[in-house]
Design brief:
Chain lengths: 164, 85, 949
């Protein structure tokens, strides 16, 4: 392989799409306390990530085993109209790119400036990857990226070609 | 390839956005204005040589529909006229 | 036998000889050569024929400015029209001349020289206009075409695009670029230095200069080493900055990157600041037969001696209007070339210049009027500029210098303005439009500063030699002469942009890098104006040619376009489905052929299964959105034509969305889950567009409303079971909800378990049969599907593809966006006026539809068609009165073979069609007409009893 990078398609996570004012979300579910306020910032709590991905919009990611517990804690079906909580675990497929060349491989398809000083450990953002909407964040030794699940095979194909 | 300022994300590559067209005047109440005015609202789209206010959708980013003033001669993103919204 | 290779010197590796083939001849060069330097080393000067006149042409330049020596590469790196000066020599390279057969020495096409006066400037303009370009095109292309495009992609390797960001992008690694990069890098800025050459140094590589008393290339090596050690610097060689776009976005084409398998990489760079250190390009002089092989740019001749250890001629004449050619003469002499004379059009030559060539005859105030020879230069005619007797000087090399043009191409692409500088007789950067500066020779500092032994630059412009005899070329590549420009001016094309289009001057692969300024000078002389008043043509990207592969990057073969899969894709493949894209990038099964079946037989079998027993299809791609908030009801009332706010929790309603100008955007169903939670379901093809539409309305029109939209398209997949036995199969699968018609009626839904999987069952139907849409999370979709196939085996269940779905919906008269909905029809035309609420005073599209319908023109309305006699009608075919050649009165939107009727049935949009049921109309085809009876658009179960069953 020309690039020193390991590409791994990750098994699904528990994902919840959260919309509304941060205080309203936190009031409804203590589980959500500490939602990051800065745009495109993420807060890590062990394996659980709170990602601020848009105006009044967060994405909660946790191990899939946590899904039912979180669903019970977040109670999407009974939440007040001021907030929206939707289980979206199946909507994104994640890949992990690790190794010395992970950034170079990512920059083949992604226009984001990935310099650590610009896009650091607590950064997360939706951006473009090979023409698609994609979520990008850092992980130990590289990056994690996510695309709409139905494009997973295509992105795997692209990444394989990019790193031939 | 422009570098478009998103109010949530900061400046991002144009390829993250979809063009949303020039900003038209506020939608009138079709039942309260003459038909000519309504038709004019529907069909007359600003198309100046120079700064134009337009919408862009940060569709591959945070999803924001944002507004910029773009100079159609240069693609420069400019300050809008002081009396514009 | 490299007969013209000097015994020593040059930046070539004599320990690494390389074999190559040119026009069938086996030759040798060295690592470090270009194809051009290797050809010269082998004594080959004639290497091409010109574009229009098929004149013999040699090597004129050194690099990207080369206007003449175009070759075609064969084999693994097949490509056409490549300047020989830009091709690094490699082992096994196979090249041939363009524009000549069987070879440049004997060229049948050269007879066009004799008829050249019949192909004057503007020939193409005139030919395009009258009577028809297509009459001439094949013959002209054969006679005047350049090399053919390769028919195969590169045999090995691939292309790559890459994004990058920097504080400072320095274009060019000559002395000024290296200095600028070093200063920026030392200040801690993120620097990208990109240079088109194979090694850094720029013009210094071609010279024998010293900087601070040491060889200039020692200084280069020192800077390169320092840059190499800095982590904030990316240094690219063999990398051309070829495009400068808005917002400081630039493209860099890196050839042969140090990366296995990678042919080229195209960088897309967003730079905080750009420094154009792009150097300067020497220009030609304009005299008679200035295109003869052996006539070379002075700087190129100098570089062949110094850099490649090649003797470009045995006896040279130097022709110049400026000081830079004196060092050239000195270097030629050092390389063993006899310099017969220096012809300088200026009256005065500095002592410092004369001191460089103490033993050479210098003819000041003289010009070369024409060259002698056939396919090779044999001598020049020299005459006093002021007029007088001419003199012949024998030579096989004419090194000419018309002065230097700063390479302002990138600067100009950035929209920076230019000004004409009288002292330098050239255009210089003036006012910037973006964050960019020009430095060094690109800024008019043609000679190095005092710290070097470079001669100060002095020039007196000579736009053309008045006494020229023979064709005097301005643009060698496109065979544009002084006479052609004069013709253009006479015919009224009197601005430089018009002259360019009319003569094609500057429109070649070299983009007139050596000759454009002479065209400007020629126009200026003819019009009695200063060159600054004439101005330049617009500089556009690319600066040099870029291969399509580099622009396309990875987008080839299976990944040319994005594609989407459902969890059933793998199963479909295993089942032998014929897959293709069916909207919104989804690859879906068209049909599931069984052994020995034709396309039509497969589709018929699948349709029969749905109509008679039970079928299942994968409806996963449908767009699905969860809407939440107090204001969802009134929001949907605004977006849909019918009323949605009155929907009760647990109900489903069909709806249609229009744009505000009355066009149908989409149709689909809305589910109300609870007081504040709703599901909006859209067609597959418009899911993204409707999402953007909802967000635009929400954010820009109703920002204060309590409303959230979440895309759950891929949180829900569905398997839709349809057919008379659908309920029985559902029961066999096991569902914990009451499936009875009154408990779960048509347009109802229920959440529960199906086959022990959490599911939402929705009673909608796109086939007209009893249908259960089983929605599950994608992680359960495969299991659900396999369970359906397993349990369904007892029902003889049939998987159904897009083709059968299309047939079934046409039989039923259900509309399809893109077929029946084409941007002109409204719901009334489709017989769906009931979906347009009269009660709501306003919603998107209501008023526009009303205004349009108030007109007097007949509307095209949806009808059914039954061809008589029974036959297929091509979709899209026009309907005309009597099938005659008359304006159309409609078109056929769909035609399928109906298994219910055992006949072809169609849908059409027909003027005033709702009132014409029973009439015979005519489909007009190119070779015949097909009569068809107009029917109601519903060919099957008009009362909808089956889908409600």
């Amino acid at each position: 392989m020309a690039y020193d990078v390991e590409i791994l398609r990750l098994s699904p996570f528990a994902l919840f799409d959260l919309k509304g004012a941060a205080e309203a979300l936190e009031d409804w579910a203590p589980e959500l306390s500490g939602l990051p306020g800065d745009p495109n910032a993420l807060a890590r709590n062990g394996e659980v990530l709170h990602c601020h991905v848009g105006p009044q919009h967060w994405l909660l990611r946790a191990p899939l085993e946590e899904e039912n517990r979180l669903d019970a804690a977040l109670r999407p079906n009974t939440a007040p109209p001021e907030i929206s909580l939707v289980r979206v675990s199946d909507t994104l497929t994640f890949f992990r790119l690790t190794g010395p060349d992970a950034g170079e491989v990512l920059s083949i398809g992604c226009p984001l400036d990935l310099l650590p000083g610009v896009f650091g450990d607590t950064a997360v953002s939706f951006t473009e990857l090979f023409g698609l909407k994609a979520l990008v964040l850092r992980c130990a030794g590289g990056f994690e990226i996510a695309v709409e699940q139905s494009y997973g095979d295509m992105i795997a194909d692209y990444l394989a070609r990019a790193t031939v | 390839m422009m570098n478009i300022p998103c109010p949530f994300c900061g400046a991002r590559n144009e390829s993250e956005f979809a063009y949303g067209g020039p900003v038209k005047p506020d939608r009138p109440d079709p039942n309260a204005v003459p038909d000519e005015d309504w038709t004019a609202y529907l069909t007359r789209v600003p198309n100046p040589l120079g700064p134009v206010q337009e919408r862009w959708h940060h569709v591959r980013g945070c999803g924001t529909w944002l507004t910029i003033w773009r100079d159609t001669r240069t693609h420069d993103i400019v300050e809008g006229p002081s009396d514009a919204g | 036998m490299q007969g013209d290779r000097l015994p020593e010197g040059g930046r070539i590796d004599r320990a690494r000889p390389l074999s190559f083939t040119f026009n069938g001849r086996a030759l040798q060069g060295y690592d470090g050569d270009t194809l051009a330097s290797a050809l010269l080393a082998n004594g080959i000067h004639l290497c091409a024929r010109s574009f229009k006149y098929h004149r013999p042409r040699g090597i004129v330049g050194l690099g990207v400015e080369e206007p003449s020596a175009l070759v075609e590469l064969l084999g693994d790196d097949a490509s056409g029209n490549r300047p020989a000066t830009t091709i690094p020599l490699r082992e096994g390279l196979v090249a041939q001349s363009v524009n000549c057969w069987p070879g440049p020495g004997f060229d049948l096409g050269a007879v066009t020289q004799l008829i050249g006066r019949f192909i004057p400037a503007g020939f193409y303009y005139k030919t395009f206009k009258w009577p028809n370009w297509h009459l001439f095109e094949p013959a002209i292309r054969r006679a005047a075409g350049l090399a053919a495009a390769p028919t195969e992609p590169p045999a090995k390797g691939h292309f790559e695009n890459r994004y990058a960001h920097c504080d400072v992008l320095v274009a060019g690694a000559g002395p000024a670029g290296l200095q600028a990069a070093l200063e920026a890098a030392r200040a801690g800025r993120r620097v990208i230095l990109a240079d088109e050459g194979v090694e850094a140094g720029g013009g210094l590589l071609n010279r024998r200069l010293t900087i601070s008393g040491a060889p200039a290339l020692d200084w280069v090596a020192g800077v390169v080493a320092e840059l190499e050690a800095m982590p904030n610097v990316t240094h690219l060689q063999n990398a051309t900055v070829w495009a400068y776009r808005e917002h400081n976005y630039l493209m860099v084409n890196e050839r042969a990157p140090d990366h296995p398998g990678l042919l080229e990489r195209n960088w897309r760079i967003r730079a905080g600041e750009v420094i154009c250190a792009t150097g300067a390009i020497e220009r030609m002089l304009v005299f008679g037969n200035n295109d003869r092989p052996g006539v070379m740019l002075a700087s190129a001749a100098q570089a062949y001696v110094n850099r490649f250890g090649v003797r470009p001629g045995k006896r040279a004449v130097v022709f110049t209007n400026n000081s830079s050619a004196y060092a050239v003469a000195a270097d030629l002499i050092s390389g063993g070339v006899e310099v017969a004379a220096i012809i300088d059009s200026r009256a005065q030559v500095s002592e410092a210049a004369r001191a460089l060539v103490p033993n050479v005859e210098i003819l000041t105030g003289h010009v070369v009027t024409t060259t002698r020879g056939g396919r090779a230069l044999k001598g020049v005619e020299v005459a006093p500029l002021a007029g007088g007797a001419s003199r012949r000087i024998a030579c096989d090399l004419l090194a000419q210098s018309g002065g230097w043009n700063p390479a302002v191409h990138l600067w100009s692409q950035s929209r920076g303005t230019l000004r004409y500088d009288e002292t330098l007789a050239t255009f210089l950067s003036d006012k910037p439009a973006q964050a960019v500066t020009c430095v060094g020779a690109a800024n008019g500092e043609i000679a190095l500063d005092d710290d070097s032994d470079d001669l100060p630059y002095a020039i007196e412009p000579l736009w053309r030699v008045e006494q020229a005899r023979g064709k005097a070329f301005l643009d060698i590549q496109n065979d544009v002469t002084v006479d052609d420009v004069h013709l253009a001016l006479r015919e009224g094309y009197d601005t430089v942009e018009h002259v360019k289009r009319y003569t094609t001057g500057g429109m070649g692969i070299d983009q007139g890098k050596t000759g454009n300024i002479n065209i400007i000078g020629t126009v200026a002389l003819a019009q009695g104006a200063a060159p600054g008043e004439i101005g330049t043509t617009t500089f556009r990207a690319p600066y040099t040619p870029v291969s399509f592969g580099a622009i396309g990057g990875l987008r080839e073969e299976s990944v040319t376009f994005p594609y989407r899969h459902t969890p059933i894709t793998e199963w479909n493949h295993a089942r032998g489905a014929f897959m293709y894209e069916a909207g919104a990038r989804w690859r879906r099964p068209g049909y599931f052929p069984q052994a020995g079946e034709s396309f039509q037989e497969s589709v018929n079998r699948e349709c029969r299964a749905v109509r008679q027993i039970v079928g299942v299809y994968d409806g996963s791609p449908l767009g699905t959105f969860e809407l939440k908030g107090r204001d969802v009801g009134k929001f949907l009332d605004h977006l849909y034509t019918n009323i949605m706010s009155t929907l009760s929790p647990g109900q489903v309603r069909y709806g249609m969305m229009l744009s505000d100008d009355g066009l149908i955007l989409d149709d689909g169903v809305v589910l109300r889950l609870s007081e504040h939670r709703w599901i909006v379901s859209t067609s597959t093809g418009h899911a993204d567009a409707i999402h953007a539409h909802m967000e635009e309305q929400r954010q820009t029109c109703f920002p204060d409303w309590n409303l959230f939209v979440t895309n759950v398209t891929s949180q829900w997949n569905n398997a839709t079971i349809c057919g008379p036995r659908a309920r029985a199969l559902m029961e066999a699968l096991g569902a914990d909800v009451d499936l009875a018609p009154d408990a779960l009626p048509f347009m109802g839904f229920a959440d529960g378990q199906v086959a022990d999987l959490p599911a939402r069952i929705v009673r909608v139907s796109f086939t007209g049969e009893l249908s259960f849409e089983i929605n599950v999370a994608p992680r359960h979709m495969r299991a659900l599907w396999e369970r359906i196939m397993e349990v369904g085996a007892a029902f003889d269940i049939t998987p159904v593809g897009s083709e059968a779905n299309h047939v079934l919906r046409v039989e039923k008269g259900f509309l399809s966006l893109g077929h029946e909905v084409d941007g002109t029809v409204d719901p009334f035309d489709l017989g769906m006026g009931w979906v347009m609420s009269k009660k709501k005073p306003d919603y998107l599209g209501k008023h526009a539809v009303a205004l349009r319908r108030a007109g007097t023109r007949d509307r095209r309305e949806l009808v059914g068609l039954r061809p008589e006699p029974d036959q297929m009608i091509p979709e899209g075919a026009p309907l005309t009165q009597g099938g005659d050649r008359k304006p159309t009165e409609g078109l056929v939107t769909a035609c399928v073979f109906s298994v219910v009727h055992d006949a072809w049935v169609g849908l059409a949009l027909l003027e005033n069609g709702q009132a014409r049921h029973g009439e015979i109309v005519h489909v007009r085809l190119t070779d015949r007409t097909i009569p068809a009876r107009v029917t109601a658009p519903v060919h099957y179960d008009p009362k909808g009893e089956r889908l409600r069953s």
